[in-house]
Amino acid sequence: MKIQRVLITGLHPSAVDYSRWPGLTAEKLQAAIDHSGDELKQLGYAPEVCLFDLKRPAEAVLQEKLSQVAYDCVMIGAGVRTDKEHFFMFEKLVNAVHQYAPQARICFNTGPFDTAAAFQRWA
Questions:
Q1: Domain ranges of the chain
Q2: Is the pTM of this model over 0.85?
Q3: Whose CB has fewer CB within 10 Å in the chain, the N or C terminal residue?
Q4: pLDDT tens for each residue of the chain, 123 residues long
Q5: CA distance 111 to 99
Q6: Which fold is adopted by the domain 4-122?
């Protein structure tokens, strides 16, 4: 069986407005990202992470990452997708995946703790 290359994307823990996410902290978010990578490896995936710190346009960061490797599936994190403040970023990221990784499926998690489930639906 071919190992599926998957890309986890989302906001860098230092770029998140935690007032929008009660109970979540930078440490908890980083731990969830790390756990997701470990869980995906145990499930037989080859995960990589691409986080957006808002210092550069997220779509440019993603375009650079997608030009390096052909991914089977790309996940756009809930912190981008569900926050109205990041709606245009989300739209640009979906279009970047469509343009620079047309072979990749796209998936979405509902929060930082169900990333593996998101990939299992599509990868």
A1: 4-122
A2: yes
A3: N
A4: 567 999 999 999 999 999 988 999 999 999 999 999 999 999 999 999 999 999 999 999 999 999 999 999 999 999 999 999 999 999 999 999 999 999 999 999 999 999 999 999 987
A5: 25
A6: Rossmann fold (3.40.50)
